[in-house]
Amino acid sequence: MGNTLKKNKYSLIAFDIDGTILGNNHQVCSKLIKVVALLKKQGYLFTLVSARMPQSVIKIAHALGVSDTYQIALNGSLITDTKHNVLYTKTFTTQRVRGALNTLDKQISRNYYDSFDWIIEYPNSYTLKEISILGDIILPRENNLPDEVNKITLIGEPHLLAIAQAKLIKDETLLVSQSHINYLEITCNTISKFNGLAYYASTLNIPIDEIIAFGDGENDMSMLSGVGLGVAMANAKDHVKASAADVAGYHYEEGVANYLSELLL
How far is residue 194's CA from residue 220's CA, in Å, rounded to a whole number? Predict the structure, then answer.
């Protein structure tokens, strides 16, 4: 970590969720909860920036103690408060990708996210696991595919997703990136975590260079490279780390909490 960083340089701190602030038990790291509480008293603002559904992001926000602010969900395409008041939403038409999706192996589950709704086509073991995790928050449906969505997530085996990604990236109007080895995120190229975060910061009159962001996935790269201080996790892939200015410890060793403690406390 560079010694030139100053405590008062930053105003807003943004966290990815999975692989970043959750431990191996899928719970928010206990030390981070304490660090965030201390930094809030010093005037720092916080938000979550995740590919997750807003209901799930809100649940994590409550656990972390930052539910008093807006949260950024669905890969930056939806910004909402904990009462489901939407500050910002950006969608794209599913017609743009239907042709390509129809050529994919049906072992790959197609998941369409329209605001607070989750629609599944071809559920598989991974989506069933996701349902078991989020079932107390929202139950998906398997019909009436929407014409407009905030994002599409393909869920399946890594080798099948690699084939899907190779097909989809040929369309330059799409942004296709991994959030996990079993998850491939699809949005239009004007939707990203950075764009969502930048919009939210603008509503707070916070310059981009006053933002610290933490993440570990390919879908975090725009955010990590675009803010004032982008910090990749030690568990991130090398090309994700290369997009960031610095690297924190592993998510399962409370890397974010330790990093913020050293930097700001």
Answer: 8
Reduced to 3 states (helix: H, G, I; strand: E, B; else coil), residue 264 is helix
Q: Same domain, yes or no, for 62 and 115?
A: no
Number of domains in the chain: 2
pLDDT tens figures, 79-101: 999 999 999 999 999 998 988 99
Could you give phi then psi for residue 260, rounded to 5 degrees?
Answer: -65, -35
Domain that holds residue 102: 92-188
Per-residue model confidence as pLDDT tens digits over 115-153: 999 999 999 999 988 888 776 666 677 667 889 999 999
Separation CA 54–CA 25 (nearest Å): 21
Asked if residue 186 lies in contact with residue 154, where contact means CB atoms within 8 angstroms, the answer is yes
What per-residue confidence (pLDDT) applies to 5? 43
Please give the C-alpha separations between residue 58 and each of 49, 130, 136, in angstroms, as whole numbers: 11, 16, 13
At residue 125, φ and ψ (nearest 5 deg) are -65, -30
Please report where in the chains the tokens 């930053």 appear, as a residue: 10
